[in-house]
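Suppose you are handed a protein chain with no further information: no name, no annotation, nothing but its sequence. What can you learn? This example shows the usual starting point.
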Amino acid sequence: MSTRCTCAETCQQAGSVPRRSLSCTTCTRTTGGSESTKTVGTMVSRRCAITGALSAFVVSHGVFLLLSKVVAAKPADQSVSRTIRWGLLVDVTKCTEGCSSCVDACREEHGWTGFGRPATDPQWIRKLFLKDRATGYAVSLPIMCQHCEFPPCVDVCPTGASFRRADGIVLVDRHICIGCRYCMMACPYNARSFVHETPRNQQPHTPRGKGCVESCTLCAHRIDHDRPLACVERCTELGHQALLFGNLNDPRSDISQRLASYASVRVRPDLRTNPGIYYQGL
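A reasonable first move is to predict its three-dimensional structure. Written in C-alpha cells, the prediction is:
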C-alpha cells in the first residue's frame, strides 16, 4: 500500500508559510512494503521535512487521518483566509472573581480534566486575580493562549507541531508533537500544558494524547462550522457578556467597533508578539 507524500501538507492546509527553508526536489517514502515518490517543489521547510518523516510513522499505525482533521480544521479543498484574523475581547469589569463559567465550558467542550495535581494538570484557560496594591483596585480575568501574530512557540518548535493558521489561530499538531516542551518554555503567557497522564473523557473533535503539549485552540472546530466559542457561548448564556469574539480585520465587526470606542490593553505588548486577545478595564 502506498501513500502520497505529506511533507508540506500540514503547512499548506494551515495556510502558513515556513520561515526557514531549504532546497528539496524529491521525497521518497516506503509504507507497507511499497514505495511512493513525488516531487514536492523546490522549497520545503526543514520543519516540514521532519514532519513528513514523523507523519509516515503515524500513518503506518493507522491514526493519521483521525488526528489531521483537528489540526487542518478545514476540508482539503478549502483553506482558511488571511483576510480574517480571529480575536477575543475580555471586559474584566464584567468578569467576577468567583465565576468559572468560561473555564468549565472549555473543560467540558474539550474533555481536559485534572488529576488533583495543580502543578501539572492541564489548564487551557485559567482565572487570575489581580490587585493594585496602591489603590486596592482588583479584577478577575481569564488567561489562555494569546494567539499571537508572531508566536514564540512556533519559532522554537523543532518539528513544526506548533503552527499558526492563516486566520491567526495558534494550534498544536499532536501527531507530530514530540513532547520536547520547548514551546512551553518560550511562551511568555504560561498558556501551554503538557499531558503527563493518559487523558480521560476524550472528545472526537479534540483528540488528546499523553506526552503531547496542548493549549487553547480558540475552538477552531466550532469556528469552522460557524459556531461560537464554548467559553463565549457560556458567558453569554449566563448574561455576563464579558467575552466578545470576532474578526479583528473587519472594521464593521462588533469586536473592532468596541476596540475603536474604548481603551484596551494586551498582555506584555513590549514583547511585540501582537496577541489576538484584548482586555478592557485593566
